[in-house]
Write a structure and sequence with these properties.
The chain is α/β, with parallel strands linked by helices. It contains ten helices and 15 strands. α9 runs parallel beside α10. Keywords: ATP-binding, Cytoplasm, Nucleotide-binding, Nucleotidyltransferase, Transferase, tRNA processing. Pfam families: Sua5_C, Sua5_yciO_yrdC.
Length: 351
Amino acid sequence: MRRVADGGQGMRQLRRSEEIQTAAAILKEGGLVAFPTETVYGLGAIATSADAVAGIYRAKGRPSDNPLIIHLGSVERVADWVKTVPPIAQVLAKRFWPGPLTMIFQHRGNLAANVTAGLPTVAVRVPDHPVAQALLLEVGIPVAAPSANRSGRPSPTEARHVWDDLHGKLAMILDGGPTGYGVESTVVDVTGEVPVLLRPGGVTLEQLREAVGAVEVDPGLTHEDVTPRSPGMKYRHYAPEGDLWLVREPWAEVKEALERAVKRHQAQGLRVGLLVTGEHKDLVAADLTVCCGWRRDPLSVAQQLYHALRTFDEKGMDVIFAETFPDEGLFRSVMNRLMKAAGGKILDLKR
């Protein structure tokens, strides 16, 4: 079944809509519903039913040791599901909720065990999207929702991406149009004295530090020999079907070497794609060039990244060379996704 909810409606009208009521009923009965958030589309199940949550893992092919984020319609409901909301979490909630921030708390034990993968902590967020908020308020209890894609694939930023990956495996898709941020929420552990960034996302590290001061970064995000504390970060994610390689050097400085690399792969009978920003879209020729925003506008790159990676699959590219970005601001989140998608592979153009 596929239904559409208009994200432009007023909240009260949207909550009364047939689509929202139908979706809420499906969730309460243990079914799966995909819905838009301001980051990516989520695949939802009620977080108090182990059977319903198990449906998420089956539909996605997701490893069972990869815990899920629970979504709530209002900040006021968070205390019902976590042991305590530390003062620093209260500051972050006031600043960034509703919004693309997930916080890790000690949970009360009233969620299905497979939501947390048996851990004593739970990831919580309050999304900032009218369709998501209407649905969550109508359901009234937490909805567990990872990204609504096959595990390992680029996350969905449009309803059709969900359909491409999961049709036949869920009961309903709520279409709220393209998402706003394009990359997933930032994940921060607030169970210790100092918050720890576990996954960069829509809220930048700089914004977090501006809000609360000291914020540590999980060493597993920057050191390949250290296992990330966030279980989901140890898996390859966001990957297109083609073989993705990252180009560290500024493209204008390695133009000729990059052209040789493209021709070398084409000579082997491979179709080559380039993932570029608008500043470089005409610099090097390949079988397919996909532009994902502009370097001068990091949000535009984040918004278009997953759509671009999926485009290479649609066009059957065998090899993809991608621009890289500085490790700062929203580009830090983009680079985290690109590194995971490429499996850390860097194209050495100086050989």
